[in-house]
Amino acid sequence: MEPIPSQPDVVSKRTKLAYSVGHVLNDLSASMWFSYLLVFYHRIVMFSNAFAGYLLLIGQVADAIATTFVGFESDRTRTGLFKYGRRKTWHLMGVICVLLSFPFCFNLCVGCRYSDLWAQFIYYAMFIIIFQFGWSCSQITHLAMINELTHKEGERVALNSYRYACTVSANIFIYAMASVLLGVHSSDDKTDITPGDAHIFQTLTLIVVGIGLICMIIFHLGIKESILPAEETEYRLQLSLTSSGKLKRMTWKSFLREKEFYQCALIWMFTRVILNVTQVFLPLYIIDTISKLNRIYVAIAPLCSYISGLLASFPMRAINKHLGRKVTMILGLIFTLASTFLFWFIFELKPIMRVEITLIIACVLLGIGTSTTNICSFSLTSDLIGLNTECGAFVYGIMSFADKLANGIAIATIQQLNPCTADATTQCELYYRQILSFIPGGVAIITILMVISLWKTNIGGNRHEIITPERTRLVPIENHVNDSECDEQAPMIA
């Protein structure tokens, strides 16, 4: 039998770099999707608030369905197209779909600019569905590769941190470019965005596609994926364990029978509801609630949030090591609660400079909170999968399914109830103020309770079994060896 392909204990810097940029195209497009979709379709295309919300819901539902499908099929794929690798094949398919569809999502309707709104709605919906399918292919397979690159907990946290650092950097880039474009291409109304600003979104979309394509080339050239079929890799993993114990083989049904699977899924979903609701409605909050601010703050405010999030991501590995996942997660949620408190009281401040400073402070706190909670939720899910990479894409697919569906329903509902009209200025101000304070704050409190429910749970650590010589029944190996011993006897998969 051929020697078992092994993972290095420490992932090389080259591999980390290549892996970290493998989601940049998705990150850039998602930043525009959540931050400016409602702004673009409501204020540029002139859809109603409800229509704009329905487009986002269609995209989220398509994404949710696609993630489940991709999760199943990616795990079942053997060596991929032309032995390119099962994860990289699906990732490449997703990249192609995103590159071909995303430019049409933030562009005026080609050939139907002056058609009825329902015709334009169908036009945008088709490209949004293709875009979301491609986005899901790239996201799920990229996440699933973490556990296949290394089994070391510290290295998985590092990969998650580098991945999230690139995510934050991509968002910073988008907001920086948006602030430049909004500032350079000034319209007569410096506090609002109008149909005359359509070219700004077109330019930003082309920049996203160009930068994303370069990063995808780096990823596909820099990452080497095992070409062994999934079943053979798993079989070799089982053979390489000692005769006294073995790792339980997990199926998707096995994961569904674990209580912590649902707890981790809810934490994943809640952290993304906080992130996406604030990301979607922060620009509208600035335009309609703090209407006296220059429209450039539509880009500056989230830019400050993501810069602080990027800085917070660097020490995350050390913080996780010293405080643990759960304590770190709760600290992040406390930062989020502090930001929602400030968003509520900014409205009552009078001097413009005091409003600007408080807004920046609130965004910085929000950035630290969302960065911390997202990295921790990724790491908790990675712990849940552990060495059972045979179903890694399925687990990430279900997590993503839950968060996409929850976000789509939440945002569409908010838009359906939106009272903002030309003659309802006061109602509009209060509405976005409530949305940006009560929803993230309430969800953060629920998430804290969910993390506490996992406090004594050994996530993903109860799947090793040992056969004792005097008894034939299987008992958990965790009662016989410590974590370091498990790591030493567990093999690596390339």
From TrEMBL:
* Transmembrane parts of this sequence: 20-39, 51-70, 90-109, 121-142, 162-184, 204-223, 265-287, 296-315, 327-347, 359-380, 435-455
Identify the keywords attached in UniProt to this record, alphabetized. Membrane, Transmembrane, Transmembrane helix
Q: Which GO terms describe its cellular component?
A: plasma membrane
Q: Entry's Pfam families? A: MFS_2 (PF13347)
Q: Does the keyword Cell inner membrane apply?
A: no
As for family, the record states: Belongs to the major facilitator superfamily.
Question: What name does UniProt use for this protein?
Answer: Uncharacterized protein
Specify the species.
Answer: Adineta steineri
